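Would you mind writing out a protein's amino acid sequence and the numbers that encode its backbone to help me picture the idea?
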Amino acid sequence: MLLLFSGIVIASKPVQYIGVIMIFISWLTTSAVSWKKGVTNFKKSTALVLLGLIGIIAYAAYI
């Protein structure tokens, strides 16, 4: 299902945008939940969020 929404299978731009948004939200949520549960420390969670933001910026520059 994720492959379908990420646009790899269907090459339409709106579907790709939905896929990127879904991946970013899951990335952000996973980082926050991992930090909250104590699996990762604050620095590592912050680094993961920043990495996700860099990915979104790179994707936006690619469009």
The chain has a mean pLDDT of 78. The CA atoms of residues 5 and 15 lie 6 Å apart. Residues 13-37 form the longest helix (25 residues).
